[in-house]
Design brief:
Low-confidence stretches: 1-10, 201-210
Shape: globular
Structural class: alpha/beta
Radius of gyration: 18 Å
Order of helices and strands: HHEHEHHEHHEHEEHEHEHEHH
Strand content: 5-15%
Distance between the termini: 23 Å
Oligomer: single chain
């Protein structure tokens, strides 16, 4: 927390080093390889649980081709506040088909078996219903690395701090272009692993152009907490945009564009066809590999 009467920048010299946890170390490792990191999101449960687990594993390349460096396992929720039409459509179908919170644990175990780390992205109410201590315990036991919690702020996260510390899990909070300087430094400092920078104001969804606000937001994060690891998401849909993103951030986060390939496959009557998904992952991986890592 920033000392009263000082600015975030002035307080930076006395702030503890940013805790990279499990997943921030992954971002650092890709920098050492001379490239940016790639994070991929899919819901567990769409089009069904077994196929979704296969799709989540496919994101990693499964040792046969380039894949993502970190998997985001989405937990479908009935009232998502930041999910766009594409992600909502898949999530709604998963809920209708009976997905359960525990399915995310199955998915985490399957992804971890590939050697690629996984975090769960979830609205807090689902964790509250499962039991925070029990979920943290079970996620760690399944090989999961942490949570992204879009609707949980650090000042309301005392329980999550306690159970994530107890089980060594990363905690990724979100900041946006509208975050005040004080909110930004408090939120970033509360993260372990990395911070999720939402590049646009609004909901998820693939876009034809990269956000113009994202570089400025990342620069503000770097000024406030220079050693923080930063992933940028919302709107990235192809390798070119991913390449642009990792030129100034540590990682590019892709969700809606990946989900769209599964929706189109089901609409075409081939719900288990992951060909388009794998092709998009290959394009995105090529994009982050082609960029010089962001200067720090």
């Amino acid at each position: 927390m920033t000392t009263p009467g000082t600015t975030p920048a002035a307080d930076a010299a006395t702030r503890p080093a940013f805790d990279r946890g499990q997943t921030g170390g992954v971002f650092a490792a890709t920098r050492e390889q001379g490239r940016g990191a790639l994070v991929g999101f899919l819901h567990v449960g769409y089009p069904d649980v077994p196929t979704s687990v296969a799709a989540l594993r496919a994101l990693t390349g499964e040792g046969e081709s380039a894949g993502v460096d970190l998997v985001e396992i989405g937990l479908p929720y009935s009232d998502p506040m930041m999910d766009g039409v594409t992600v909502q459509r898949a999530g709604t179908r998963a809920l209708q088909r009976g997905v359960r919170t525990r399915d995310a644990l199955t998915a985490a175990e399957a992804v971890a078996a590939t050697g690629t780390p996984a975090v769960v992205m979830t609205y807090w109410n689902l964790i509250e219903h499962y039991g925070p201590a029990a979920f943290a315990r079970d996620l760690a036991a399944a090989g999961g690395s942490g949570l992204i919690t879009p609707d949980l702020t650090p000042d309301e996260a005392e329980t999550w701090f306690e159970v994530s510390d107890a089980h060594g899990l990363d905690r990724v909070f979100l900041v946006s272009p509208s975050s005040t300087d004080q909110r930004l430094v408090d939120t970033v400092s509360a993260c372990r692993g990395w911070v999720y920078a939402t590049s646009v104001m609004g909901v998820t969804g693939a876009r034809t152009q990269s956000s113009t606000a994202a570089p400025g937001l990342v620069a503000r994060i770097r000024e406030a907490v220079p050693d923080a690891m930063v992933g940028v998401g919302l709107g990235i849909s192809n390798g070119a945009q991913a390449r642009e993103t990792v030129a100034y951030a540590d990682a590019a986060i892709v969700g809606s564009a990946l989900v769209k390939t599964l929706l189109e496959a089901e609409d075409a009557g081939r719900p288990d066809d992951l060909t388009a998904l794998r092709a998009l992952v290959a394009d995105l991986a090529q994009g982050v590999a082609a960029a010089e890592p962001a200067a720090r």
